[in-house]
């Protein structure tokens, strides 16, 4: 069963910066959520309160009804996949060893078969397992990052700008693949992205953040039809304008 999440009055303060200014949010099991908003609006901080890279100043984050600060971080993270921009593959370890790293930290050994299966999930050839990360393209490395995140059989997938550095074609293909895996593996997925078009296409619920607050919480359909307020609509205007320009070119 996919994980549920709840944020209750979550704040995070760094000296004078209020990175999170009071977040109340429920995430249903199986949802695919996109977090969008300007740089510095608190998206990454919010994501990191889930896997405890950041602990809230006040408030609570509940994973499947349990406060994440009361759980063993290693065991809890094992049940979560985390994909971030820059990937963070270990350069001196093979692709297979990188994928097996998370389970290994908690004393589990992945079989070659399982590594093959994980590579196939992200459309990579099994023989990639013996290569070093530097012998892969950026898009292939990012796919390895996704395979690694899925290695512990997570019920929650956290992604922080996972496709940011990729070319548009690879980005689109990998986005579609992740959407498909989300459904197939019964995941709850939260994806931080700068790209409203990507959020509208992949997610079923889009949260817009501004200065540590969630200022819009809408479906892509609602955002496309003009709902969500000024900050959300300013972001929707970009893909809308691009689509309009394309239409004009076709005419
Ligand atoms: N470790 C830290 N120490 C001090 N301030 C921090 C720290 N981490 C984040 N902040 C501040 O908290 C605010 C929110 O940062 P956060 O990284 O969550 O934003 P973001 O929306 O993910 O931005 P971006 O889209 O640029 O990645 C920013 O003002 C940032 O400078």
Count of separate structural domains: 2
The span between the termini is 48 Å
SSE series: EEEHEEHEHHHEHEHEEHH
Major sheet attributes: 6 strands, mixed
Query: Can you name the CATH architecture of the largest domain?
Result: 3-Layer(aba) Sandwich
Cα-atom radius of gyration: 18 Å
Helix content: 25-40%
Question: What class do helices, strands and sheet pairing give?
Answer: alpha/beta
Mean pLDDT over the residues: 92
The portion of residues forming beta strands comes to 15-25%
Residue ranges: pLDDT <50 for 5 or more in a row?
A: none
Give the helix tally: 9
- Strands across the major sheet, in which order? 6-7-8-3-9-10
Instruction: Find the CATH topology of the largest domain.
Output: Rossmann fold
CATH class of the largest domain: Alpha Beta
Overall, the morphology is globular
DSSP E strands, number: 10
Bound molecules: adenosine-5'-triphosphate
CATH superfamily of the largest domain, by name, is P-loop containing nucleotide triphosphate hydrolases
């Amino acid at each position: 069963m996919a994980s549920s999440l709840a944020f209750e009055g979550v704040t995070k303060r760094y000296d004078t910066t209020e990175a999170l200014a009071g977040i109340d949010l429920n995430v249903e099991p199986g949802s695919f959520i996109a977090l969008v908003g300007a740089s510095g609006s608190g998206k990454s901080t919010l994501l990191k309160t889930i896997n405890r890279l950041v602990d809230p100043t006040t408030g609570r984050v509940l994973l499947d009804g349990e406060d994440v600060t009361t759980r063993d971080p290693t065991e809890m993270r094992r049940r979560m996949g985390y994909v971030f921009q820059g990937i963070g593959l270990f350069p001196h370890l093979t692709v297979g060893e990188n994928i097996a790293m998370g389970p290994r930290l908690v004393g589990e050994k992945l079989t070659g078969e399982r590594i093959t299966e994980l590579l196939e999930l992200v459309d990579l050839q099994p023989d990639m397992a013996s290569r070093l990360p530097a012998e892969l393209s950026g898009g292939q490395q990012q796919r390895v990052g996704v395979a690694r995140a899925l290695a512990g059989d997570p019920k929650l997938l956290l992604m922080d700008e996972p496709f940011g550095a990729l070319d548009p074609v690879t980005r689109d293909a990998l986005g579609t693949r992740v959407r498909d895996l989300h459904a197939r593996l019964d995941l709850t997925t939260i994806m931080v992205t700068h790209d409203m078009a990507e959020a509208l296409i992949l997610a079923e619920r889009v949260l817009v953040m501004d200065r540590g607050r969630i200022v819009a919480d809408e479906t892509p359909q609602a955002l496309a039809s003009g709902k969500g307020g000024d900050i959300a609509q300013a972001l929707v205007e970009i893909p809308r304008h691009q689509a309009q320009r394309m239409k004009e070119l076709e005419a």
